[in-house]
Amino acid sequence: MRHIPLAVMSGIVFATAAVAGGPEYDGSDRVDVSHINRSIHIGDGESAGDLDSVNGSITIGDNASVASAETVNGSVHIGANGQAESLETVNGSITVGSNTIVQEGIETVNGAITLAADASSLDKIETVNGRVELGARAHAGAGIELVNGNVELKNAARVTGDIIVRKPNSLGWLSKQSKTPRVILGPNTVVNGNLVFEREVELYMHTSAKINGKQDGPLAGGKVISFSGESPNA
C-alpha cells in the first residue's frame, strides 16, 4: 500500500495556499476549486479540474467530469455516468455512482469505499480502516488493498489484480486493531489475481465465484466458507 499521499501531510500545504471561502465553481470547463472549511458541489453535467478541501465534503453530480477530488475531513461522492481521475479522503467515505469511471484510483484512510453497479476504478482501491464494496458488475482494475475492514463483491463484480489484507501494524499509527476482516465473493464474481492475507481473514465464497490465482495466508477456522444465496446471511 502506498503511504497515503493525501493531505495527511499535504493538506496543510494546499490549505495555506487556498483562499478561505474562495469562489464557488461557476460551471466553466476544468476550473480548479479549493476550500478550507467549506464543502464543494459540482452540478449534473458540469466539468471541473482539481477539487481540494480540508474540512468539507465533495459532491459531484451525474454525468459530470472532474480531475481529482481530494479532502481531509469529509466524504467524496460522484454520481452516475461520470468521470474522474482520482478520488481521495482521509476521514470520510467515498461513493462512486453507476457507470462512472475513475482512472487513477480511489483511496481513504478512515472510511468506506463503495462502487455502485457497473462502476469502475482502473487503478487500485485502497483503504486502511474502512470497508470496500463493489456493486453488481463493478470493476476494480488494479486490485484492492486494506488493513481493517471487510471486502464484498456483489453479483458479477470483478477484480483485476490481487485482494490484499495487510497486517494491522504495517502502517503504524494510521492503523488500529479490528475484528477479523471478511472477504466476501458473491455470485458470479471473478478475481483475476491472488488473495494475499497477512492476517487471519474470514473468506466467504459463493459456489459460482472464481479466483484465477491462489489464496495465500491464514483463514479463520482454517477453511473457506461456501454459500449459495445472494450473501452469506441469505
Features:
234 residues, mainly beta, 2 domains, 16-stranded parallel sheet, 5% helix, 37% strand, globular, disordered N terminus
Report on this structure:
By secondary structure, the chain is mostly beta strands. The chain folds into two domains: 1-98, no CATH class; 124-234, no CATH class. It has one helix and 26 strands. The strands form two sheets. The chain has a 16-stranded parallel β-sheet that branches. A ten-stranded parallel β-sheet has the order 2-4-6-8-11-14-17-20-23-26, with no helix packed on it. The longest helix has 11 residues, at 7-17. The radius of gyration is 18 Å and the shape is globular.
Rg, alpha carbons: 18 Å
Q: How many structural domains in the coordinates?
A: 2
The coarse overall form would be globular
The N- and C-terminal alpha carbons lie at a distance of 33 Å
* Secondary structure category: mainly beta
Q: Strand-residue fraction?
A: 35-45%
Tell me the series of helices and strands, N- to C-terminal.
HEEEEEEEEEEEEEEEEEEEEEEEEEE
Question: What can be said about the biggest beta sheet?
Answer: 16 strands, parallel
Average pLDDT metric? 87
Low-confidence stretches: 1-28
What is the number of helical segments per DSSP (H or I, 4+ residues)? 1
**Which percent range fits the helix content?**
under 10%
How is the secondary structure organized here?
Blueprint: H1 7-17, E1 33-34, E2 40-42, E3 51-52, E4 58-60, E5 65-73, E6 76-78, E7 83-91, E8 94-96, E9 101-102, E10 106-110, E11 113-115, E12 120-121, E13 125-126, E14 132-134, E15 139-140, E16 144-146, E17 151-153, E18 158-160, E19 163-165, E20 182-185, E21 190-192, E22 195-197, E23 202-206, E24 210-211, E25 215-216, E26 225-227
Parallel strand pairs: 1-3, 2-4, 3-5, 4-6, 5-7, 6-8, 7-9, 7-10, 8-11, 9-12, 10-13, 11-14, 12-15, 13-16, 14-17, 15-18, 16-19, 17-20, 18-21, 19-22, 20-23, 21-24, 22-25, 23-26
